[in-house]
Amino acid sequence: ILGDNKRWQSPVPYLLYSSLDMNTKGIILRAFDQFRLKTCMDFQPRDSEMYYLTIEKRTGCYSYVGRTFPNGQVVSIGQNCGIIAIVEHELLHALGFNHEQSRYDRDEYVTIVNENILEGYQNNFNKYSENDTTTLGTPYDYYSVMHYSKDAFTNGNGSTIITKQPEFQEVIGQRLEMSSNDVLKLNRMYSCSKYASVAFKESCSFSNSGLCGMSRCSRSAEKGSENGWERVTQAAGGPYTNHSNLGTNGTVFFMHARAASGQEGDTAWLDSREITPSRKCGVQCLQFYHYHSGNESDQFNIWVSHVSHDYIEKKTSLQGIKCGQTSYWQLLHVSLNATKTFQVEFEVRKGAGPSTGGVSIDDINLSETECPHHTWQIRDFENVAKNTDTWLFSPRHYSRDGYAYQLMVVLRSSYIGVYARLLSGKYDDQLQWPCPWRQITFLLMDQNPNIQLRMSKQNSISTDPEQIDYSESNSFTLLE
C-alpha cells in the first residue's frame, strides 16, 4: 500500500493479550524472530507509544493494512491461526502488504472465478489500482505467503483462483514461511539494503562468494608440506561434491583440509572476518555442514576469538569433534554467546593414525538467534518416504532443564506426521511433573544454503495442564 503515513518505525511496538494461549504466544515470538532474521524490521513490547499492535485472539485471522489506528491496532490470531506462516501473513498486512492476488497486474498471472466465491466474500478478491498500491518492482509471486490458495473461500463449485501457468496451481497459498520476494518487498518498502537484517550476520556457500572474507593459515612440522584449507570441487576420500548442490552438474565449491599427508600435529586454520554483535541478547548460532573422511584421530575444533583493538583478547574452544569416517554431509549447530567483536576459527589437526581424506565444511550461516536444541538428520529421506507407514524413532534427547524425550516420524502417502513423547530419564526425581508449560517446535528444514532464503515447515505444541482434549486444537502436529 502507498503512503509513508502507513509505515511503521522499527521496532514496531506490540502487546500480547491474555486471550492468546501459551502455545500461540510462543509461535508469535518465533515469527518475530523470522522478521529479525530476514528483514530490517524488529518488534518490541510496547512502552508508551501511541501507535502499537494489539495481538489477540478474536474470531478468525485478520489484520488491518499498514499503520492505521492509534491506541492499539488489532491483529487477530484466532482459533486454528496459530501457525507461523499465518502469523507472518497477518503481520505483513499490518506492515503494509495487501494480498498478492490483489495486485493491479494480477490478471496477467491468475484468473479469479467469481461464480465459485462464497457469497459475501467477493471483496476479499478485490484488485487494487496503481494509484493506491505498488509492486515495488518485484515480479508476481506465486510462492508469496500473502497469496490465497486455489480454493480460498470456495462455495464448493470449484477453485476460486486459477493460475495462468498450470504448474503453480498447487503452489499458491503455501503456508511455510515468507518467500524470498516477500522479504525483498518488505525490505524495499522500508528502505532496507539488500539482505539487511536485525539478526543475520553471515552466509557462505563458497561457490559464488569465494572465501567470504575468511582467511587461511597452516603449520606443519615438515617444512614445505603444509596442508591448509583449500577451496575445492571434490576431495580424495570424499566428499565428491558440495552439500548444497548434491547430485547436480556444474562447478560448485566447498572448503577442505587434507589429512592424508603430513605429520601428526600439523594444523590448518580457517578464520572468519571480525563480527560485532548488534543485539543485546548475546546469543548467536553458527550453522554449517561438515564431512569427515579422515582418520578418527584427526581433530576438528571450533574456536571463538574475542577481538579488541586489532589483537585477540581471548580464545575459547566451543566444540571439539572427534569422529570416524563419514559418508555424508552432517549438519552442525554451535552456540557462540559472544558479547563483543569476535572471530570464528575452524581448526583441523592431523592425528596419529593413517588417513586417506580430511575434513570439509560447507554452507555456513551465522545469525543472532538461538540454536535448535537438537537436530535429527534423516538420510536418504525421499526413498525412505516411499515406504508407506514407515515409523522412525530418534535417540533419547534431553531438554535444557533435564526432561528426556524422543521424536517420532511417520511417513505416509498423504502426509508426514511428527510426534514427541516423554521418556524416563536420569533427572526424573529432580523435575516438576507433569511437565507443564513446555513448548516444542518441529522444523523440517529447507535445504537452501542461505538461511535468509529458506522456507521451512514448522509447527509447535505446548504442554498445557489446563487442556485435556486436543481434538479441537491445532496443538497436535501433522506436517502435511
Descriptive notes:
Helix content is 9%, strand content 29%. The chain is mainly beta and 480 residues long. It folds into 4 domains: 4-95, Collagenase (Catalytic Domain); 105-189, Collagenase (Catalytic Domain) (3-Layer(aba) Sandwich); 200-367, Jelly Rolls; 381-479, Sandwich (Apoptosis, Tumor Necrosis Factor Receptor Associated Protein 2, Chain A), CATH 2.60.210. Helix 1 (22-38) crosses helix 2 (84-95). The protein starts with 11 loop residues before the first strand and ends with a strand. 31% of the residues are buried. The model is unreliable at 474-480 (pLDDT under 50). Residues 459-480 are annotated as: Disordered.
Question: Helix and strand layout, with pairings?
Answer:
Blueprint lengths: L11 E5 L5 H17 L4 E3 L7 E4 L4 E3 L9 E5 L6 H12 L14 E3 L48 E3 L16 H10 L10 E5 L10 E5 L9 E4 L21 E5 L8 E5 L13 E8 L6 E10 L2 E11 L8 E6 L6 E8 L8 E10 L13 H5 L4 E4 L3 E2 L5 E8 L4 E8 L15 E6 L12 E6 L15 E2 L1
Parallel strand pairs: 1-2, 1-3, 3-5
Antiparallel strand pairs: 4-5, 6-7, 8-18, 9-12, 10-11, 11-18, 12-17, 13-16, 13-18, 14-15, 14-17, 19-21, 20-21, 21-22, 22-25, 23-24
Descriptive key words:
480 residues; mainly beta; Collagenase (Catalytic Domain); Jelly Rolls; 4 domains; five-stranded mixed sheet; 4 helices; 25 strands; 9% helix; disordered C terminus
